[in-house]
Write a structure and sequence with these properties.
By secondary structure, this protein is mainly α. It has one domain: Four Helix Bundle (Hemerythrin (Met), subunit A) (Up-down Bundle), CATH 1.20.120. Helices cover 82% and strands 0% of the residues. α1 runs antiparallel to α2, α3 packs antiparallel against α4 and α3 runs parallel beside α5. The longest helix has 37 residues. The radius of gyration is 18 Å and the shape is elongated. The two termini are 19 Å apart.
Length: 148
């Protein structure tokens, strides 16, 4: 396989998996918000913030692209392309899984708020844990971009 095609495959995996994960994560939490609004419409602002949390992983995929796009030239070496593929796989898969799990945590928080529990602040702290791993994926892509 040509090195440039391998690099583009890495970029595609990174963008697709992070975007699909964010789509699923926000859908999971959005479905919970729709159900919770039947009980407590007044907490829509909290629901909206919690629903938005899994969307950041899709943005991380785009950030990864901007970190690596300077290497997408016809002169790219096989080592550079392999590094981009590895970074794309790492960030894409971690973002996919992170956003799915974050959506589930957000859905539980939304359900609890809908049932009248005051858990918004604590839930934001818990939502940061899956987010951390997506941020580490971005950090890995950053370090890869600096090394190649």
């Amino acid at each position: 396989m040509e090195p440039i095609l391998l690099a583009y495959l890495g970029i595609a995996i990174m963008l697709i998996f992070s975007g699909v994960g964010s789509c699923y994560g926000t859908t999971i939490s959005g479905n919970a918000a729709v159900g919770a609004m039947k009980k407590n419409k007044g907490a829509f602002g909290s629901y909206m913030i919690l629903c938005a949390m899994p969307s950041t992983q899709g943005l991380y995929g785009f950030l990864g692209y901007f970190l690596l796009k300077g290497f997408l030239t016809p002169e790219i070496t096989m080592a550079q392309a392999a590094a981009i593929l590895g970074g794309g796989l790492a960030l894409g898969l971690v973002s996919l899984w992170s956003s799915l799990r974050q959506g589930q945590v957000a859905a539980n928080a939304i359900t609890a708020i809908g049932n009248g529990h005051d858990v918004f602040g604590n839930s934001l702290i818990l939502l940061a844990f899956p987010e951390l791993y997506a941020i580490l994926g971005v950090a890995a892509v950053f370090f890869i971009s600096q090394a190649i």
